[in-house]
Amino acid sequence: MYQVCSIAPASYYNLEKMVQSIVRKGSILLCGTCMDARGLNEVQIVAGCQRSSMDELATCTAEAEKVLVF
Residue ranges of the domains in the chain? Predict the structure, then answer.
């Protein structure tokens, strides 16, 4: 199982800060299948992100002006 750590070591990127800057300008949808494969649940994700489905991701991707994938 994964353990959530809210403080990243100084030499690491702080993903929570990076995500929060994106959430202010748009939305972040997370692949539910990918979350399940990694043992993640809604309690463990960064505020502003939401679990999604492939149908919702495909629809939003088709409708979006810009899409970031990483």
Answer: 15-63
Question: What backbone torsions phi and psi does residue 30 show, to the nearest 5 degrees?
Answer: -110, 140
- Three-point CA angle 37, 43, 48, nearest 5°: 100
Nearest Cα to Cα of residue 31 among 49, 55, 52, 56: 52
Structure tokens at 43: 């309690």
Stated as kind and residue range, the H or E segment containing 35 is helix 32-37
* pLDDT for the residue 12: 78
Indicate the pTM of the whole model.
Answer: 0.64
**DSSP assigned state of 39:** T
